[in-house]
Amino acid sequence: MTTIGLTTRDVARELARRYSTMTHEELDVLESVLVPMKFAKGEFVLREGEVCTNIYWIVKGLIRQFYMKNGKELTEHMATENSIFMSIESLFKEQPSHIQIQCLEPTIIFAMPKDRLEHEAVRNTNIQMLYRKILEESLILSQIKADMLRFEPAPERYAKLVKRSPQLVLRAPLVYIASYLQMTPETLSRVRTSALLDDK
């Protein structure tokens, strides 16, 4: 499949470049695992109560992962192009997800079904390495975010997000950024204003 100038082969090559070196034959296997998907702005990749069965790679677009608490939506994660996402607990426990995943823009992603990926990983060391590296990256990013929220004041949280994900800061609604950074929209507004003044 070709989409926005990228073929499934291109996506397989990018995943291999990022996570594990592969031969042409191994790229064939990875390409056969990939499932292209398109979503409109506002559409859900995963709803609460559904079981997550895939690891996803974003080719184009912006997603947010959130959950409901006391009637409020709390943003847990956001991601743009060239990022992996999943509902990791639902994926591995094979249980209904508390996390919902919604597209904030028209979004193109490639799904890697967990069952297919694990089947190929048993038979192929480099596919196994790719699978492991993806999971390692997900766990490390979760730890970095947890430490940021525990130990860093609001201005540093915002500055780190700007440095790590400038496109996300430019494109995501401020209410979701504030929720992700665990601050009120008013605090985020003050932090942003202060950061802009400091840059002048």
Structure commentary:
This protein is α+β, with helices and mostly antiparallel strands and 200 residues long. Helices cover 52% and strands 24% of the residues. The strands form 3 sheets. It has a 4-stranded antiparallel sheet with strand order 3-10-5-8. Strands 4-9-6-7 form a 4-stranded antiparallel sheet. Helix 4 packs across helix 5. The longest helix is centred in the C-terminal third of the chain and has 27 residues, at 125-151. The N and C termini lie far apart (46 Å). The model has no long low-confidence stretch (mean pLDDT 94).
Q: How much beta, percentage-wise?
A: 15-25%
Radius of gyration: 18 Å
List the total number of helices: 9
Overall mean pLDDT: 94
Provide the helix percentage: 40-55%
The 3D shape can be described as globular
Low-confidence stretches: none
H-E string: EEHHEEEEEEHEEHHHHHH
Biggest sheet character: 4 strands, antiparallel
Q: Provide the structure class.
A: alpha+beta
The span between the termini is: 46 Å
Strand order of the largest sheet: 3-10-5-8
> Got a strand count?
10
